[in-house]
Automatic annotation (TrEMBL):
Species name: Chlamydomonas eustigma
Name of protein: fructose-bisphosphate aldolase
Primary enzyme class: lyase
The enzyme's E.C. designation: 4.1.2.13
Keywords carried by this UniProt record: Glycolysis, Lyase
């Protein structure tokens, strides 16, 4: 029998509960340089290190952000950046009561002998990188793997996704970082909501089996699922009540109550849709803190408002606070459109 080190257990549980705290959720701002470039390109701003830094400073320096946001996921470059005035981003986040987090996966590549599916790289050297990120002030981490419903998904892709997430979660915990476990079931496809439920049940079953095998401390993780919805091209649409019903059914069947927080991704849903769906899930008490870890659904209007111009920083920050507050209310089931 392998005896597991307990070095960080208490701290992991504390960090996870700080992030999964009432009325708060995560700001996902960990776009890779390439993805951030696409976002900047959409508003005609050049993808330079300084422009990425300026945009991220706008986000995290929004006054009062910590009332609604408990954690911010950063890309490696951002973890080591500072404000124009010279304060490190890590310091600024901590001052605002926001836990700094870090994306640690190395992205997706084609999975040989699958149905054109992908697998997520980054386990090599992950222990050393996690130790460095902890030293730099990160206290949680994210690993995003994807599952494609139109591609099958094949059993080999599901297993690989689940096993990679479990190995990552164990390694991150070993270094004191709360792992966000994210097998993103993509929105693409014509499948109906029942098919989405079936695939989500399959991937979470595999993920929890391998996390248990790897002795992951469930009290010290956070999940980042996609909501259970019909595919983007399905002719039958769902309303928030139905999305909430299916998503909560999936969670109750697959997720132990030991897990403190479920922080959903927005996955291409509109800003309003993602808020309404979250609000519907919080109409009755849940065994876990059910909240958000949105990127696009928090940032779309912010980017459009900013346009790369200093004179727009304040109104862009107001747009961020508006979405963050709406989702904070939705976390408590109190959002009224
Ligand atoms: P979206 O909310 O834009 O889906 O992004 C969340 C995220 O971080 C995906 O990994």
């Amino acid at each position: 029998l392998v005896v597991k080190a307990l070095k960080y257990d208490e701290e992991l549980i504390k960090t996870a509960h700080k992030i999964a705290s009432k009325g708060r959720g995560i700001l996902a701002m960990d776009e890779s340089n390439a993805t951030c470039g696409k976002r900047l390109d959409s508003i005609g701003v050049e993808n330079t290190e300084e422009n990425r830094r300026a945009y991220r400073e706008l986000l995290i320096s929004a006054p009062g952000l910590g009332e609604y946001i408990s954690g911010a996921i950063l890309f490696e470059e951002t973890l080591y950046q500072s404000t124009k005035a010279g304060q490190t981003f890590v310091e600024l986040l901590n001052e605002s009561g926001i836990v700094p987090g870090i994306k640690v996966d190395k992205g997706l590549v084609p999975l040989a002998n699958s149905n054109g599916e992908s697998w997520c790289m980054g386990l090599d050297g992950l222990d050393k990188r996690c130790a460095e990120y902890y030293k730099a002030g990160a206290r949680f981490s994210k690993w995003r793997s994807v599952v494609s419903i139109p591609a099958g998904p094949s059993m080999i892709a599901l297993r690989d996704c689940a096993y990679g997430l479990a190995r990552y979660a164990a390694i991150a915990q070993d270094a004191g970082l709360v792992p966000i476990v994210e097998p993103e079931v993509m929105l693409d496809g014509e499948q109906d909501i029942d098919r989405c439920l079936e695939v989500q049940e399959a991937i979470w079953a595999e993920t929890f089996k391998y996390m248990a095998d790897n002795k992951v401390l469930f009290e010290g993780i956070l999940l980042k699922p996609a909501m259970v919805t019909p595919g983007a091209d399905c002719k039958v649409k769902s309303n928030p009540t139905q999305v909430a019903e299916y998503t909560l059914k999936m969670l109750r069947r697959r997720v132990p109550p030991a897990v403190p927080g479920i922080m959903f991704l927005s996955g291409g849903q509109s800003e309003l849709e993602s808020t309404l769906n979250l609000n519907a899930m919080n109409q009755a008490p849940n065994p876990w803190h059910v909240s958000f870890s949105y990127a696009r659904a928090l940032q779309n209007t912010v980017l459009k408002t900013w346009q790369g111009k200093t004179e727009n920083v304040q109104i862009a920050q107001e747009a961020l606070l508006k979405r963050a507050k709406a989702n904070s209310l939705a976390q408590q089931g109190k959002y009224d459109a």
